[in-house]
Amino acid sequence: MPSFLSSSLAPAAARTQPFVLLQSSTAQSCVDVLRFAVREATSKADGCTLLFSLLYPPSALVEQNQLSHERLQIFDWTSQVPGYSEKDFDVKSQMLGTVQDAPQGPMTIVVDSGDILLSDIGSLSKTEQLLASLLSVVKSRKGSRLVIHLNTPSPLTSILTQTRFCSSFTHIIAHPTALISHLATAYLTPPPPLSPPEKFWRVFNPIAERHYESEKLVFGSDGEGSGGSEFVTELLTRGADGSGRRRGVERALEGWSAGAPCELSALGALKALFVRRIAEEQAAPDPTQNLSFNLNLTDEQQRSRAQVPLPYAHEGKPTEQTTVPLPAAILYDPDSADDLDDDDPDEDLDI
């Protein structure tokens, strides 16, 4: 079964998903997924990839053998800090001009990170206008895509996830494995398929939105710390069919290990959950075993049972012969102790 994350970041998915939002947090970084997205974009046969490094150096986002790739253009602006650079550097005009002057054909624009871009520009509205302009260029070129990396919490998240910014997009959020283990032990809600998806998301969403919960699980007194190569990715895809309608919204959880997506059961920190469930299912006693009679029905017996008319199936419903509704009435069956004398018991009273 192909990975949902791999298919969402594949170059072919850019036709219906022109915008990808990657989100890290203090408790878990999403840089590995960003590196995977850059590698996938560079591997396509045509087009170019523009990487704007504002937070992490290019060596942290691009594999060593791809740093000099002919279809990859790297713009290392990590040293361009407003107020500390030797010359004035307008990041907004420089980025927009670079994108507009790019060669014709499919293009992938990678911005790391949107928060540093906001800090350099100094205005939320101007940053939104710049990102909207980049997305407009992407949409004008078939098969192009805009990839933005943010850190949680970010004021840009609520803007970039609205349908008015882009109706079809993929949102990938990195979570520590400690959060999933905590839900399984404290709330008895392991991830699907170990529990119903409706129940899991109802418990998961409120806790995941409180970022300090994950930070406490990772950096608290009993935390394991961060920096591991294994974590959990939450994927939300809207408008996978290109329509952007809500019926196209999909949500899933996948694991990440050794620089590639994987099943949740393959993560070392969560493997015990799945092993325990399999052991419980195998150890569950069968109540129909060791009986002197058979409780199971054959196929013929099940068909015969389904054909039996149920006496209560039409209870309270008028029959076909009933055409005129009967008037309401009270039917009373007198008891042996009831006094049904027709004489008036109060006839001697002068009322």
TrEMBL record:
Domain of life, per lineage? Eukaryota
Q: What is this protein called?
A: Elongator complex protein 5
Pathway given for this chain reads: tRNA modification; 5-methoxycarbonylmethyl-2-thiouridine-tRNA biosynthesis
Q: Which organism is it from?
A: Rhodofomes roseus
Comp. bias regions, Acidic residues: 335-351
List where in the cell it is found.
Answer: Cytoplasm; Nucleus
Q: Which residues form the signal peptide?
A: none
Similarity remark: Belongs to the ELP5 family.
